[in-house]
Description:
By secondary structure, the chain is of the alpha/beta class. It has helices spanning 36-47, 64-74, 88-101, 112-116, 118-124, 137-149, 242-246, 255-269, 285-298, 315-323, 338-343, 350-362, 380-392, 410-418, 443-458, 461-468, 474-490; strands at residues 2-7, 51-56, 78-82, 106-110, 130-132, 155-164, 169-176, 180-184, 187-190, 225-228, 230-231, 251-252, 273-277, 303-308, 326-334, 366-373, 397-402.
Amino acid sequence: MKVFLINPPSLDKVKVVREGRCMQRKGAWTAVWSPLSLALCAAVLEQEGIEVSLLDYTVKEGTPEQLMAQISSIKPDLVVLNVTTPSIEDDLKIVTMTKQAYPETKTAIIGIHPTALPNECFNACKELDYIIRREPEFTLRELCRAIECSTDIPVCVPYAIASEGQEGKHIDLPLLVEGISFRKGDKIIHNPPRPWLDMDDLPHPAWHLIDTSDYIMPFHNVPFLLVATSRGCPYPCTFCADSTYYGRSLRQRSPERLVDEIEWAGKEFGIHEFLFWSESFTLDTRFVMAVCDEIIKRGLQISWVCNSRVDHVNLAMLMAFKKAGCWMIGYGIESASQAVLDSIKKGITVEQIKKAVELSHQAGLDVSGHCVLGLPSDTFQTINQTIDFTIDLDLDFVQFYCAVPFPGSKMYEQACHNHWINTTNWSKFEQNVSVLDYPHLTAKEIMNLRRRAYRRFYSRPRMILKVLKRLKKLSDFKVFFQMIREFMTWM
């Protein structure tokens, strides 16, 4: 069997980062993240002896017509697209083009958007065969087994045998593919969800299927890779859709297994720079300290960044991060208004934000802050308060996002109920655009405040000097100006 895994090309030339909850254009980070979900899917399929191709149009230049030529060359049995909310309309057009050109090829999509709105996706694209809901790796493997066994619906043989009664009577139970949705005639069938996987059951990502030199860490100007450290977050933040995809129970890898992958990436691909990918790396203190201890014990000379909640760090932890190679930590600040933080069920205080940034700088780490402007209880005053707060914190970097009611989040339900969403165009559901018109604050006003936030934060002489100090040689300046051009597309 042949499977083609794709981060699809954009019809409007806007390249979108596609990894779990992160669905923003490339310019947001002036870099593209390595396609971790697709690489993990590929590794699981390769263990099955399935022939896998992987193409990431987020970094590769290409058109839908060129993708069709690739499909013609590979002749896959199944094409799987990794889709996002802002790109979903274009992504489904790619599905249609694929099916019309190659009717025998099965099509499937993965991502938070189809997990949250499977019926809408099927209704928008009659050529779509399957939706893989929630985390995709083992569901995709079972779907491939089913496709090999059946040309009708995803029910596979051989059958599971179950005994019934003392007489030892056996009945045949069809092995249904948990976690998928599909069509049967005019009906859309949603199989039961697949139980959450054990992170240590995942193999190392199939990075040999990509060109790792395409993924460059900003400012360090060297290739980097994503490393999955855990999945799931128990916190009920209303603006986040991640629990729809990865659940609320924290599932971590063993520290040894995690560091094995880091060491393997260095030996196999020469990669020593990493982004630790999780909902929040620091939810379990014992886990993160064990990871740092393992890195230090093995003498790995690596550099990495991670994210964290502000209420889950202390000085000893942050100093261990620095010793183990961490150079930057990102915090979800969201807002400087305690009333706004409480309204989105963030579960942190403004004082905890201040303390976390202070301790991180004390440990010698750079700090990036992430703020969401235009949340339901935001006002002109609270947004300007947040802008002032980021300047007072002396953050090294900051991202200002527009609040987006992504499907799968509580905020989406709230926005639909209150008729705040001002468009049916999914491509506008980007974090550099507001689609929310409140009675007290319009989308246009939110976007103007966001532009003001960036101008105020990054145009300060102190900030300009801090950035320029990071540039050591001529090539750094060339890359930096390219980063600025990319970043302007995010503005």
